[in-house]
Amino acid sequence: MIGRLTGKILEKNPPEVLLEVSGIGYEVLCPMSSFYEMGDTEDISLHTHFHVKEDAHTLYGFISKDEKTLFRELIRVNGVGPKVALAILSHLNVASLMNAVANEDDALLAKTPGIGKKTAQKLIVELKDRLAKLELLGSNHQTITSSVNINPNTQKASQALQALGFKLKESEKMLSAIQDDSLSTEELIRQALQNK
Q1: Domain for residue 141, yes or no?
Q2: Quick check: 38 and 24 in contact, CB under 8 A?
Q3: If we measure between CA atoms, which residue out of 179, 176, 158, 160 comes closest to residue 168?
Q4: Band of the pLDDT at 158, cuts 50, 70, 90?
Q5: Helix (H, G, I), strand (E, B) or coil at 8
Q6: What is the pTM of this model?
Q7: What's the rounded Cα separation, in Å, for the pair 181 and 107?
Q8: How many domains does the chain divide into?
Q9: Second label for 119, Cα 20 to 30 Å away, from 24, 108, 143, 182?
Q10: How many beta carbons lie within 10 A of that of residue 17, not counting itself?
Q11: What average pLDDT does the structure give for the chain?
Q12: 3-state secondary structure of 191
């Protein structure tokens, strides 16, 4: 339907932008990440998704094509509508969302308003394989990091942290923050405990 709009911003009233294109004003709902990127610019191009329901026809707009792609993946998840998808993209940027799904970080997803623990877990289950196959255009988002580290001592350090009483996800999160791949098991544990 309407895949892209280029025009002049007449009004900004988060999450809505009034965009004038050839004399017609389009009301477009955008995630907060897109609002931050707009800054004070007047002329803008938005990648749009036209959503039709019985009682409403709504335009959703995104600065980057990657955000639009993720939005479409999110609304394919059963129980996640466009408003919830917009809230997720307002709360997490593209890289953070991809990392949260790849690392099964349901706690981070559950911090989004309107998302409970169960919905966060459902998102991870349904999106994990789909997002891994996605080819995103943006070179502007950070690389997606899986919880699997290159350092062979990471596994031993994770087991040691679990023996100390940390859960598997906690230990993986603590270890994933360590960038140095040459550390011994003991050094990894020490740094992980300092990062906590």
Answers
A1: no
A2: no
A3: 158
A4: confident
A5: strand
A6: 0.69
A7: 27
A8: 3
A9: 143
A10: 24
A11: 84
A12: helix
